[in-house]
């Protein structure tokens, strides 16, 4: 078995032990669903948007320690950000906020970025739908 | 925090008696067994004594034991050695899909060199069907290699039955017995094998030492060249302290095996029953009865193995998983997939392997902690919708 203490930074372990924003948002403005069972990581990210600002974010994740920690971190990072600011959040930024990830775990930060982008796209698509309907 | 080690299938602590036996061979008994003088001859004597003990543990003759650097080398030696020595008779090898990588990768290497390999399927319990072995044999088959017991799920394979088929067809049979030697009774004549790989550190001996049993008369190409050691089959100055330790570990295993099988089987079954009762949506991986006395392997639905391991580790419990979130391929255990598990189930697998120092109190602690860990992780699983 791997030595978990040398594998992950303290920050990763802290987010893994006490993940922030776990759960689902009722009537979310956007949902991102990424990953697949083959690679062993699935992330679901929910966002609530008010006036183009992300007011709340929650996640549900099936995955390893890094997948849980990056999910937790990305939900923390997006809260209070505008949609355009949130779209700027890169996987590297998530990994750096966690004081780094082992190279083999970088794909987890990619998944977190993709989950966020997918939730925002879902939000934008819904909004376009609403705009079209009101025309 | 007192740690609970339940990963004995990965490695065992070296028995204090084994360490004691080894120590003089680092210092006052430092001789090279190839030397003519008394230092050399004393070291040589120690090796031969160890060889007799290892042979005795598996019902072999001393001269049929070749010491190696471990189980992986023994498997490589058996498979490549038999393949290259018997190339003139054929180029076909039969093995199973749940072998250790030491066997699978050796076979893959040989495939690149023109050999043909059949990887037999397993049933849902990880058992190889001897009839499948019979059907796979061709006029060019020179070697069959099926492990004695699987390292991940603990299933014990029907080696004696496979041996009858191999003997009828005049084909060599190798078995990787790394998980069984010292843990359950192993007898090379009852199993009817020509080659058998073992490793010292799985039976409370030191790391870096193993052995290959080679039945007298078996044609095998030498593994290393450059000296007369190990009947010219494996050149290199012998790892004297390691070999002495292996010998002592074999001797201790022989004395303790009976009681340990009974004690560990009880603890194993208590853990299996307790986990399946206390955590819903779990399944036992491997065979319910034809199973190593120390192996518990379960799949927990909706959660991933590494995150369970990390949480267990935070509580001081050390186990292992077939999930492979940190391997380059991200593919979970080939063993679990070959047994028909889905990717989710394979990623959600946990292995607890028990050993000499495992207590009932430790098993009770796992039964107390794991349900809490699973509940915590299931609360964040996207496979389960939140209760609203």
Can you tell me about this structure?
Chain A has 135 residues and is an alpha+beta fold. Helix content of chain A is 50%, strand content 20%. Chain A has a single domain (4-129), classed as Sufe protein. Chain: A. In chain A, strands 1-2-3 form a three-stranded antiparallel sheet. In chain A, a hairpin with a 4-residue loop joins β1 and β2 (41-50). Chain B has two domains: 4-10 and 258-377, Aspartate Aminotransferase, domain 1 (Alpha-Beta Complex); 16-253, Aspartate Aminotransferase, domain 2 (3-Layer(aba) Sandwich), CATH 3.40.640.10. In chain B, β3, α4 (101-112) and β4 form a beta-alpha-beta unit. In chain B, α1 (16-22) packs antiparallel against α8 (240-278), α3 runs parallel beside α4 and α8 crosses α12 (360-378). The radius of gyration of chain B is 22 Å and the shape is globular. The two termini of chain B are 38 Å apart. At the A-B interface, α2, β2, β3 and α3 of A face α9 and α11 of B.
Give the SSE layout.
The complex is a heterodimer of chains A (135) and B (388).
Chain A: H1 4-7, H2 10-17, E1 30-36, E2 41-50, E3 53-62, H3 65-78, H4 83-87, H5 91-97, H6 106-134
Antiparallel strand pairs in A: 1-2, 2-3
Helix pairs in contact in A: 2-3, 3-6, 5-6
Chain B: E1 4-5, H1 16-22, H2 38-57, E2 65-68, H3 71-85, E3 92-96, H4 101-112, E4 116-120, H5 130-136, E5 141-145, H6 159-169, E6 172-176, H7 188-191, E7 195-199, E8 210-214, H8 240-278, E9 282-284, E10 295-300, H9 305-314, E11 317-318, H10 334-338, H11 343-347, E12 349-353, H12 360-378
Parallel strand pairs in B: 1-11, 3-4, 3-5, 5-6, 6-7
Antiparallel strand pairs in B: 2-8, 7-8, 9-10, 10-12
Helix pairs in contact in B: 1-8, 2-8, 3-4, 5-6, 8-12, 9-12
């Amino acid at each position: 078995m791997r030595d978990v203490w040398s594998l992950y930074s303290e920050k990763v372990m802290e987010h893994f032990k006490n993940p922030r924003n776990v759960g689902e948002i009722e009537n979310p403005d956007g949902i991102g669903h990424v990953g697949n069972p083959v690679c062993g990581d699935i992330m679901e990210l929910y966002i609530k948007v008010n006036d183009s600002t992300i007011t709340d974010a929650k996640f549900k994740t099936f995955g390893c320690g890094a997948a849980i920690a990056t999910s937790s971190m990305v939900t923390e990072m997006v809260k209070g950000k505008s949609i355009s600011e949130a779209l700027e959040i890169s996987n590297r930024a998530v990994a750096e906020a966690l004081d780094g990830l082992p190279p083999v775990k970088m794909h987890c930060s990619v998944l977190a970025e993709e989950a966020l982008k997918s939730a925002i796209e879902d939000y934008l698509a819904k909004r376009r739908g609403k705009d079209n309907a009101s025309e | 925090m007192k740690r609970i080690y339940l990963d004995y299938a990965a490695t065992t602590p070296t028995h204090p008696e084994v360490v004691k036996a080894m120590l003089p061979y680092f210092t006052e008994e430092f001789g090279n067994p190839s030397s003519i003088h008394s230092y050399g001859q004393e070291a040589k004597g120690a090796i031969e004594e160890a060889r007799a003990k290892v042979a005795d543990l598996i019902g072999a003759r001393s001269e049929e034991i070749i010491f190696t650097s471990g189980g992986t080398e023994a498997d490589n030696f058996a498979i490549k050695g038999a393949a290259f020595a018997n190339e003139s008779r054929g180029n076909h090898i039969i093995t199973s899909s749940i072998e250790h990588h030491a066997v699978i990768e050796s076979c893959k290497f040989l495939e690149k060199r023109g050999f043909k390999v059949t990887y037999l399927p397993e049933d849902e319990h990880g058992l190889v069907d001897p009839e499948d072995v019979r059907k796979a044999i061709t006029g060019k088959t020179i070697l069959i290699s099926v492990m004695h017991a699987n390292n991940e799920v603990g299933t014990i394979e029907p080696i004696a039955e496979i041996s009858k088929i191999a003997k009828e067809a005049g084909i060599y049979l190798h078995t990787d017995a790394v998980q069984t030697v010292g843990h359950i009774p192993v007898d090379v004549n009852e199993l009817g094998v020509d080659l058998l790989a073992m490793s010292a550190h799985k039976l409370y001996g030191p790391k870096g030492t193993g052995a290959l049993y080679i039945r007298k008369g078996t044609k095998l190409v030498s593994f290393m060249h450059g000296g007369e050691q190990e009947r010219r089959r494996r050149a290199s100055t012998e790892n004297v302290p390691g070999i002495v330790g292996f010998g002592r570990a074999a001797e201790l295993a022989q004395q303790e095996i009976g009681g340990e099988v009974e004690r560990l089987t009880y603890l194993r079954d208590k853990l299996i029953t307790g986990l399946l009762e206390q955590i819903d949506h779990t399944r036992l991986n491997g065979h319910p009865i034809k199973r190593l006395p120390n192996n518990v392997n379960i799949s927990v639905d909706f959660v991933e193995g590494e995150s369970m391991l990390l949480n267990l580790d935070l509580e001081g419990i050390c186990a292992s998983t077939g999930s492979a979130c940190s391997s380059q391929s991200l593919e979970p255990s080939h063993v679990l997939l070959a047994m028909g598990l889905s990717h989710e189930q394979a990623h959600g697998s946990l292995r607890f392997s028990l050993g000499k120092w495992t207590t009932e109190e430790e098993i009770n602690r796992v039964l107390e902690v794991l349900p809490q860990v699973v509940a915590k992780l299931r609360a964040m699983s996207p496979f389960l919708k939140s209760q609203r």
